[in-house]
Amino acid sequence: MAIKRPTRSRGTPSHKPVASAPLRHVDVRALTVDQSALTGESKDAEKTSGSVLSSGSIVRRGEGNGVVMLTGAKTYFGRTTELVQEARPKLHIEAVVAKVVRWLFVIVGTDL
Known about the structure:
Shape: rod-shaped
Radius of gyration: 24 Å
Strand content: 25-35%
CATH superfamily: Calcium-transporting ATPase, cytoplasmic transduction domain A
CATH class: Mainly Beta
Oligomer: single chain
Low-confidence stretches: 1-7
Number of domains: 1
Mean pLDDT: 76
Structural class: alpha+beta
Number of strands: 5
CATH topology: Calcium-transporting ATPase, cytoplasmic transduction domain A
Order of helices and strands: EEHEEEHH
Number of helices: 3
């Protein structure tokens, strides 16, 4: 995995960037972020140097430099997406068809 260059996050009134990947802050100046997408907490969180900014966080004020820690399926949202796709519930019709196919195998197997 390649190490990415430090990413600059800036919050201004007209442009509030969203963290697309988890970042470990190296240099922070008065950074406050909205992490309600992850935590449900409506109050903005203060970030300091060395703290982690989760993906999906919105920069409300300040700026900082950080290094991308995880990407893709390794992030919180990426893992959640994979788990939802794997945990697809079995439909009732699938269970009925499977039972009919088993009975057909039993009938065909006894006729031979």
